[in-house]
Amino acid sequence: MYYNCAIVDDEQHAIDVLHEYIEDIRFLKLSNTFKNPIEALNTISASDQIDFLFLDIDMDGMKGTELSRHLRSKARFIIYASSHLENEVREIDADFECYLGKPISMKRFAGTIDKLIRLNNLPTSN
Description:
single chain; 5 strands; 5 helices; Rossmann fold; five-stranded parallel beta sheet; alpha/beta; 39% helix
């Protein structure tokens, strides 16, 4: 069993870090990455079955918080990955599920995934 992940971030190094972390967790699989939020909006559909969608907030073309409103129904969980403080994010989007502060540590990443899995009683093996 795998949980599909997608990343939308306009900084390649941030995508690379998240990609590495996703590969380190046996039940996660990266299905797509986007450096452009408009491309993500035009590409991601409900049939993609994204479980974990990682969004940067400050991106050219569209803020991650706006993008999340369009993609919320197409992803099981939206996780903001941003250098904004969590309180600032909460003021922008009070409905967000999770937040990872940049720079993101593997410990924080794994803990966030584990928390979402446990709280939602999701399986991690076949």
